[in-house]
């Protein structure tokens, strides 16, 4: 094998798309997927590639320092693509410590292992940290997040991701660890856990349940199809410059309520419902505390320097996404049993 790569969080939403892309595109690489398999991790996401010769799964916790050290000794990694994280803002509001442990302590454990095991020779090594646009805070009605926008995280989730980004840069600056960071906007697509807006609402329409819109629904997000994020990660891993940051976005801003209405129309068409059926499920509920008003990315750096662009128009990506959830109802049913029911009642009161 030409290279051995550690991908953390590979059983999650974005991670599984990254693992699949690398396993299929680079048969000469050994891909080691490390995942704790929390509620958000699901090996079913990778059932199509799990028997590949260049793929290995390791179950473990990035917070477990000894386990991480032994893993680095076992595999002699050339690079790390770090996606493992607690990723849901609402959960970070009820349980911030889980976010500090995984997102901050877990990242520092990985950085230490990389620094200690690579310290003899950083040549051809790379620590790629996958982060979010939420570290930049909330935008007013105009303006875009640039790579140089000062950090201003507002939720426990974004604060933990911002902290981990700072540690990655500090290890680059202090110890010379080669790194890149990317900060991406909201992803959507197959295999996303149905606690996030789109899969939650698709599943609720399927079950004829209310669609709980926070506050006035006028919060704005930029949306990117998950496979386009995975392609960007591949490009940055191979062609990005050491110690650089790349913003990734879909050039695709929507208010929540407009996006939900488009989704409702598409769902009605796919389900063969009368027009307007799904929209009737929209219910305005209490706002998320500290809810960030607007995120919007200027992705011109990755576009200009690495020739990356989103491959799909949003309506097409949304249709592909809805179709995937409709064709994979067993997947949703499998991940929404047990603990999910408890989470749902705690979050939405019913
Ligand atoms: P996800 O919640 O779907 O998956 C996270 C994965 O990490 C799961 O497989 C989980 O089992 C694993 N994990 C969690 N804690 C772990 C631990 N302690 N040790 C090992 N594995 C652990 O998340 P996602 O949406 O796929 O996000 C992946 C990464 O991308 C995160 O770092 C997130 O901050 C970032 N990101 C996400 C988005 C988005 O829209 N989802 C946007 C930008 C950046
Ligand atoms: P989410 O998918 O949780 O991503 P993030 O908060 O990281 O952007 O939410 C996307 C938007 O949808 C955000 O403005 C919050 C809103 N939202 C609702 O209105 N209702 C819901 O039930 C959820 C989960 C999100």
Mean pLDDT: 97
Bound molecules: nicotinamide-adenine-dinucleotide, thymidine-5'-diphosphate
Biggest pleated sheet: 7 strands, parallel
According to CATH, the fold-level topology of the largest domain is: Rossmann fold
Number of domains: 2
Strand content: 15-25%
C-alpha geometry? globular
End-to-end gap: 51 Å
Order of helices and strands: EHEEHEHHEHEEHEEHEEHEHHHH
Summarize it.
With 350 residues, this protein is an alpha/beta fold. Helices cover 43% and strands 17% of the residues. The protein has twelve helices and twelve strands.
If you had to describe this structure to a student in words, what would you say it looks like?
- The structure is a single chain.
- It is built from 12 helices and 12 strands.
- It is α/β, with parallel strands linked by helices and 350 residues long.
- It has 2 domains: 3-188 and 222-248, NAD(P)-binding Rossmann-like Domain (Rossmann fold, 3-Layer(aba) Sandwich), CATH 3.40.50; 197-220 and 253-292 and 314-341, Alpha-Beta Complex (UDP-galactose 4-epimerase, domain 1), CATH 3.90.25.
- The strands form 3 sheets. The chain has a 7-stranded parallel beta sheet with strand order 3-2-1-4-5-6-10, with helices on both faces. A 3-stranded mixed beta sheet has the order 7-9-11.
- Helix 5 (156-175) links the parallel strand 5 and strand 6.
- The model has no long low-confidence stretch (mean pLDDT 97).
- Bound molecules: nicotinamide-adenine-dinucleotide (NAD) and thymidine-5'-diphosphate (TYD).
- Thymidine-5'-diphosphate is lined by residues 89, 186, 196-197, 200, 212-214, 219, 221, 256, 288.
